Amino acid sequence: MNREDLEAYYPDVMLMEEVYDDCIIGICNRIGQESIVAYDLEKVLEKLVESGMTEEEAEEWYEFNMIGAWCGDTTPCFIDRSGM
Q1: Cα separation, 10 vs 6, whole angstroms
Q2: Which residues does 48 contact at the CB level (< 8 Å), separation at least 6?
Q3: What confidence score (pLDDT) does residue 84 get?
Q4: Of 83, 77, 84, nearest to 24 (Cα)?
């Protein structure tokens, strides 16, 4: 599902910058709460490294600026597919 489709079907979801669009896994539906966009954590970290960060810097950036940022009820989630 591309950005335009997400915005059409789920107009209230919060999306990260377009550079992360290919990291979107799908929508997380939660009972009694609004739907949110789910991003693939590994792909997000890869994007940060591609932007010039070391792996350690990318993890720190993610922890502080992404997973550590609460932007309301539609704040995106990040799926860790590594099982760890």
Answers
A1: 5
A2: 57, 58, 61, 62
A3: 64
A4: 77
Rounded-to-integer distance, Cα 46 and Cα 54, Å:
10
Tokens of 75: 């704040």
First to last CA, the chain: 27
Amino acid code (one letter) for 4: E
Tell me the DSSP string of 67-78.
TT---STT--EE
- What pTM was estimated for this model as a whole? 0.91
Which residues are 77's β-sheet partners?
38
Q: Using only C-alpha atoms, what is the Rg of the chain?
A: 13
Average pLDDT, the chain: 94
